Amino acid sequence: MILAITANFILDFSSFRAEIVGHDKFLECLATLLRNSIRSDRDCGKTEIGEQNAEEKGYEQLKVQLGVLQIIKNYLYNETEDLRKKLWDFIPFAIIFDLSLYGITTPKEIDPVLHKLRLQQKIIAFEIMRNLTAASSFFGEEVAHLYLDYISQEQDVAKCPKTWNKYLLANLTLFDLFLEPSGHHKVNERSFLEDDEYTLKLLKDVDYTRLVVAINYLEDHRYTNLSSFRVSNFLIELFYGFGKGFWA
Question: Hey, CA dihedral for 204, 205, 207, 208, is it positive or negative?
Fold first, then answer.
């Protein structure tokens, strides 16, 4: 509750925001909260004794992480580039990529409550990148390089998409994270688009829409803030691939 209130105050451009983000311990406390909640979450996953209590504690730690991520997202909204850079002195950017790769490097949670929490983390991770790159020529160009640096140091690199474009496409096509497959269609196969009912349900899904919108704005920010432009057919190929499924 306190984290949610703080996130709302930070989004509000008032004296409350200035008091909060201007405090010399603000970013340090935020980083400590996130780091401790991630550590506790991992410890709960390894606990065998008192399984139910560990599970409940795991839920609470995920909620804390969500609260901190929401604060980070709102903090980055319309913030100066210097302060955006300062944030990552306290919080490793690798955490954002870790969360965004749910369903790719980590399997889908069987527990529906856990799945919902991790899915929200994934979406907010992309919304953080969206706000980070807004009106920022530095981060607009740097975010893709940060991802390549991340996978070069990731131990489970075999599961990570090898390029930025493949990373975005892999996330956009994780349909089974949002809806269960319909009928005989297998998730992530192009043929699923032949099932109009399933496709419409996917497009109406609020969480999937949030993910698509976040990635759309993220890419828009990257291209509108580029200091040098290189022609790429990625977006044309992407929409052509989707279009073939819709209009075939």
Answer: negative
- Picking from 106, 230, 227, the residue whose alpha carbon sits closest to that of residue 165 is 230
What is the extent of the structural domain holding 172? 2-247
* Residue-by-residue DSSP string for 161-215: -SSHHHHHHHHHT-GGGTS---TTPPTTSGGGGG-HHHHHHHHH-HHHHHHHHHH
| SS3 call for 73 | helix
For residue 201, give Cα distances in angstroms to 13, 123, 214. 37, 18, 19
Q: Look at the alpha carbons of 134, 138, 142, 144 in this order and tell me if their dihedral is positive or negative.
A: positive
Residue with the larger pLDDT of the pair 102 and 44: 102
pLDDT band at 184 (very low <50, low <70, confident <90, very high): very low
218-228: average pLDDT: 81
Which residues touch 185 (CB under 8 Å, ≥6 apart)? 191, 192, 194, 195, 198
CA 200 to chain centre: 23
Q: Which position has the higher pLDDT, 246 or 73?
A: 73
What is the helix (H) or strand (E) element at residue 144, kind and residue range? helix 137-153
Of the candidates 185, 59, 124, the one whose C-alpha atom is nearest the C-alpha of residue 193 is 185
C-beta separation of 192 from 198 below 8 A = yes
Separation of alpha carbons 57 and 73, rounded Å: 24
Which residue has better confidence, 158 or 35?
Answer: 35
How many domains would you assign to the chain?
1
pTM of the model: 0.83
